[in-house]
Amino acid sequence: MQIRAIIFDLDGVLTDTAHYHFQAWQALAHDLSIPFTEQDNEQLKGVDRLGSLRWILQKVGRTLSEAEETRLMQQKNEHYLKLIEHMGTKDLFPGVQSLFTELKQLNIKIGLASASKNAGMVVERLGIAAQFDFIADANYVKNSKPDPEVFLLAAKGLGVTPEYCIGVEDAVAGIEAINRAGMLAIGIGDKELLSDALIVYPSIDALNLADLQAL
Ligand code: BG6
Ligand code: MG
Predict the structure, then answer these.
(1) Which of 50, 133, 176, 179 gives 146 a disulfide partner, CB atoms 3.0 to 4.6 angstroms apart?
(2) Using CA positions, which residue lies closest to atom 16 of ligand 1?
């Protein structure tokens, strides 16, 4: 395959923020007396803030007013921001910087497609913001993953058609979004869980560009 762009998810792919999102959602669910396990969280990876809250509420058949939803989302986000307060360049996953350098050398564009409204701030903290050729995140799209919108927006911003793009994701919803965008899906994490990805690597460090070019 001729690769012209690689579009990365952020949380759980470039850094370990997926874990902090989980912690913050679990604390909120606990406050609401709703059980919330790590397995539940797999369904929420890649899903935006409101979608995640509603998913948790529907577990017990609850619906809330818009004002109450807003308050709870704010509470979760404040907790999340506290959990990532200490984050910095040391939190970039191993292998990311060398991969980005290799992509630049090969003239392959680097995009971001994140469901998080905090994505811009997190990539700044990680010290990689300037390396993206285009950043698409939850602030600029209407439809959350598994809808392909955020990946398509990233491709458009990069000026590359989907057939020349690879998407990299740790979430089931994210892999579906990439496939629906007509891009090639690479998973990071568990092979069984991300069974709709073409290749799954245990971590981004293991991603091998030559493998992808040979596809
Ligand atoms: C996704 C994460 O990237 O962003 C989810 O996988 C998270 O766990 C979602 O809930 C929304 O993030 P934020 O920062 O906008 O609340
Ligand atoms: Mg993710």
Answers:
(1) 176
(2) 49
